[in-house]
């Protein structure tokens, strides 16, 4: 920008126009990053049949509700670029297919912050000074492990550098994000083993619930990594582990199964579940 004496906004606009003209550009993140021209001579041509092309557009359509993502791109703009490479007849055929196929998924509840920076910190294995505000405003030094999207919310697993405790953090509650110069000696594999050990020790209370066939369908639509379906003597059970601090979340989750689940153990979970049902019933006493 200094070389050509133009503003950042002008540079980005020019890059977008070059992409529209068909120049293959890609971005390199980081302090010494920028935009590069893709060496197309190194890439073999790719050929797709109509079904494969339609599947690609359907996948992009399904992702359109993720209006914040870690890749600094809008899926609608990617779709538009791909459409320009199709003939008019192919475009019309794709549009007809997309108009009669739908994918329903929760939209992001709140805008997530710092997703591109967070993804790059994971890849570069950087420590980050994070200001977080879900329960109380706090600044902590963390190392992120992964990034995942669930029920309209972006989450990340991260370890607190100071007290070595793991936590799950919501990206929409991050208010500042500063990459630190310091590095730790933990490889990603060591970090993964640490997270696995944490999950085993943190979620140590075993629970078991009878579940119906329809309940199994509900489970497949929405479940957590610490849960599974087991078949014992031709009876399906939902089993898993939780921490005492998570009991309210677990009760809320199990209530969504309605009549298609019955808690067998532990007794403390069963009583919390019954108490919540009584609270719900009490709201209808006056009817």
TrEMBL record:
Residues 114-179 form the WYL domain. InterPro entries: CBASS_pafABC_assoc_protein, HTH_11, WYL_dom. Pfam families: HTH_11, WYL. It comes from the Bacteria. Residues 2-36 form the Helix-turn-helix type domain. This is Transcriptional regulator. It comes from Pseudolactococcus plantarum.
